Amino acid sequence: MADGAFGLSKELELATAPVWAKVRDHVTPLEWPAQAALIHEINALKRERDAVILAHNYMTPEIFHGVGDYVGDSLGLAKEAAKSKAKVIVQAGVHFMAETSKILSPEKTVLIPDLKAGCSLAEAITGEDVRLIKQRYPGLPVVTYVNTTADVKAETDICCTSANAVQVVEWAAKEWGVDRVILIPDEFLARNVAAQTNVGIIAWKGRCIVHERFTASDIAEMREAYPGAEILAHPECPEDVLSAADFAGSTAAMTDYITSRKPKQVVLITECSMAANIQGDVPEVSFIGPCNMCPYMKRITLENIRDCLRDMKFEVTVPEEMAERARLAVQRMIDLPPPVVPARYDLVKARHHVAVELI
Ligand code: 13P
Ligand code: SF4
């Protein structure tokens, strides 16, 4: 019976009211009845299937606030996958994240709502490429960004994310007793890490199609138009973008920066949903564009999450022999102590000489 607001039943209106309070600036009253019903249905299916939804910070607000049991950056999602007690993991994110969950939790059923939710970085390199790199640089440790496929992780010594890349690179150099490491496949992350360490970096020419599009002149324009705004950028951006920003870090580090410091005005140089999601928690902060949309992340919707749980599709698997080798690399990263200071790339400005060799 439609006795509540937006033509919802009173029960549905009450059940979804806390979510509406967080998404109301980004979802129209016209869209809300269908979304509220899907959120309710998904949350019931989760209980039925003993499932947990791990949602990346780039999910749309109705997913992020409505059905995500754990929301966070790649590092946080991987840690959560390793310790979750649920039987089923639904990855509301991209394919490499679902593979990472499966690698860490081989006994669980890992589902992704759309198999085409890929990543330009993961597509930039193969396991065969890594074998050739190792032949060319024998004895150097291979540090691989988690934004890679399982066959690449299987060729890796240790993984990293944007939250811990500097720490991992320095750990690997010390552990192997060398002054250079291979850090693949994101060229810009490699350059930004190199600006913060004395360890030499050998990098690959992979790019994130979302972050490579930002330029230093975008930042200059924003500074001129909004002189009081604080500018935060993701380390997958080109290094001159980071140099011009006030802070750089993983999606979780940017969220922490905003929720703890509550700057009046913020420009987030990253994927569009980030600002919308944080806004729900800090309504007093005003967010100013620009942002770029990740077409892979945006393949995940409430509809296909519902279908995924209802029909138990699409299952993500990794051949056991490959998973075993990849697990070593991911687990090594997870076992490192959390960085004392979360990765901050704002030291970029202070460095002049950056040793990066591009393969
Ligand atoms: P984070 O690890 O910062 O969440 O980044 C993942 C990603 O895909 C960014 O483009
Ligand atoms: Fe990959 Fe970039 Fe999309 Fe992240 S934002 S999933 S790195 S393409």
Q: H/E series, N to C?
A: HHEHEHEHEHEHEHEHEHEHEHEHEHHE
Main sheet makeup: 5 strands, parallel
Beta-strand share of residues = 5-15%
What's the CATH C level of the domain at 5-118 and 297-311?
A: Alpha Beta
Helix content: 40-55%
Which structural class do the helices and strands define? alpha/beta
Low-confidence stretches: 345-350
CATH architecture of the domain at 5-118 and 297-311: 3-Layer(aba) Sandwich
In total, the number of strands is 13
Rg measurement, Å: 21 Å
Small molecules bound: 1,3-dihydroxyacetonephosphate, iron/sulfur cluster
How far do the termini sit from each other? 64 Å
Number of helices: 15
Residue-averaged pLDDT: 93
CATH fold topology of the domain at 5-118 and 297-311: Rossmann fold
Shape: globular
Record the strand order, biggest sheet: 6-5-7-8-13
CATH superfamily of the domain at 5-118 and 297-311: NadA-like
Oligomer: single chain
Describe the structure.
The N and C termini lie far apart (64 Å). Among the domains are: 5-118 and 297-311, Rossmann fold, CATH 3.40.50.10800; 122-205 and 319-341, NadA-like (Rossmann fold), CATH 3.40.50.10800. The strands form three sheets. The chain has a five-stranded parallel beta sheet with strand order 6-5-7-8-13. The radius of gyration is 21 Å and the shape is globular. Strand 3, helix 5 (95-104) and strand 4 (109-111) form a beta-alpha-beta unit. The protein has helices at residues 10-23, 32-49, 61-66, 74-83, 95-104, 127-136, 150-153, 165-176, 187-194, 216-225, 239-244, 251-261, 272-279, 302-311, 320-335, and strands at 51-56, 70-72, 88-92, 109-111, 142-145, 158-160, 180-184, 200-203, 230-233, 247-248, 265-269, 286-288, 356-358. 50% of the residues are buried. The protein contains 15 helices and 13 strands. The chain has 359 residues and is of the alpha/beta class. Residues 94, 119-121, 147, 208-210, 236, 271, 294, 296-297 line the site of iron/sulfur cluster (SF4). Iron/sulfur cluster is lined by residues 94, 119-121, 147, 208-210, 236, 271, 294, 296-297.
